[in-house]
Amino acid sequence: MPEPSTPTLAQAAASRLRITEIFHSLQGEADTVGWPTVFVRLTGCPLRCHYCDTEYAFHGGEWMDLDAILAGVEQYGAQYVTVTGGEPLAQKACRPLLTQLCDAGYRVSLETSGALDIDRIDPRVVKVVDLKTPGSGEVGRNRYCVLEHMSPADQLKFVLCDRADYEWARDKLTEYDIPAICQVLFSPAWGQLEPRELADWILADRLPVRFQVQLHKLLWGDVPGR
After folding, report:
1. pLDDT at 3
2. Is 49 marked as a binding-site residue?
3. What is the band of 12 on the pLDDT scale with cuts at 50, 70, 90?
4. For the residues of 146-192, what is the DSSP string, one character each?
5. Is 26 annotated as a binding residue?
6. Is 52 annotated as a binding residue?
7. Residue 135, class by beta-carbon neighbours within 10 Å (0-12 exposed, 13-18 middle, 19+ buried)?
8. Coil, strand, or helix at residue 199?
9. Dihedral angle at the C-alpha atoms of 44, 96, 126, 220, nearest 10 degrees?
10. Is 48 marked as binding a ligand?
11. Per-residue pLDDT averaged across 178-206, rounded?
12. What's in the keyword line of the UniProt record (predicted)?
C-alpha cells in the first residue's frame, strides 16, 4: 500500500491562511456601513502606513485551513463577511477563501491596499481598495492598474491626513476619471484630520464622492476586534 503523500510547502500555502482574528461587529466603513458583519483579519502586510490602526496584525496569528475559517465565520450567523488585514492578498489562499465564502452564500467584501494585483478575484466579491495618499508614507506602492479590475459595485477609498492629501486625491479623481469606474470614498485619518473640515472641502468643490467616518471607532474607540 503506498504511503500517503506529504503536502509540499506550496500546497500547504494554497490551502491555509495565517489568521489574526475572526470577530463579529458592525461594518464601520464603505457602502455596507452599519450592517452586522463577520471580519476575517489575515496576518501580515508589506506596507507600513503611518496611520495604520492594525499593526498588531503584522506578525503572529494562527494557521487555519479553509474549513476551519468557514466554521469560524458561520458561528456568528451574519450575512456579511469582510476579509481584511494586514494585506489579505499577500497570502496565496486568500482568493480560494473568498470564493468559498461566496459559495456559502455570504455577501463578501475584500479590503485591500491597492499595492497588489486584484485580478482573478471572484466577481461576486466587492473590492474595497485603499489607494495610498502621500500622507500615508506609502504612495509609491500604488498600482493604478487595479482600476482596470474594478466595477461600479467596487469602492476606491482615500484616507486623508491633511489638505495636501485632499488635493492630491481630488486630482487623481480627474486624472483617472475614477467616479466613472467605481464608487469613491473619502475618509479622514483618525485623529489627524477633522471630519467636519473634510466635509466642508468636499461640499465646496462639489466632488462626486462619499464622505465617511469610521463608525466602529465612534462607538468603541480604536481597539482591536471592533
Report:
1. 54
2. yes
3. low
4. GGGG--TTSEEEEEE-SHHHHHHHHHHHHHHTGGGTSEEEEEEPTTT
5. yes
6. yes
7. buried
8. helix
9. -40
10. no
11. 97
12. 4Fe-4S, Iron, Iron-sulfur, Lyase, Magnesium, Metal-binding, Queuosine biosynthesis, S-adenosyl-L-methionine
Residue 42, amino acid = L
Residue spans of alpha helices (H) in the chain? 9-15, 66-74, 94-103, 163-176, 195-205, 215-220
- Using CA atoms, how far apart are residues 2 and 12, in angstroms rounded to an integer? 21
Domains and CATH numbers, the chain: 12-218 (3.20.20.70)
Please give the Cα distance from 74 to 197 (Å, whole number). Answer: 40
- C-beta separation of 112 from 87 below 8 A: yes
45 is in an annotated binding site: yes
Give helix 66-74 / helix 94-103 axis angle, nearest 10°.
Answer: 50
Q: Which three cell numbers stand for residue 222?
A: 480604536
Any binding-site annotation on 147? Answer: no
Asked whether the predicted pLDDT for residue 222 surpasses 90, the reply is: no
Q: Is 56 annotated as a binding residue?
A: no
Residue 41 annotated in ligand binding: yes
Q: How many residues does the chain have?
A: 226
Residue 86 annotated as part of some ligand binding site: yes
What's the order of all strands across the beta sheet hosting 183-188?
62-65, 16-26, 36-42, 80-84, 107-112, 126-131, 155-160, 183-188, 210-211
Long-range contacts of 5-11 (CB under 8 A, 24+ apart): none
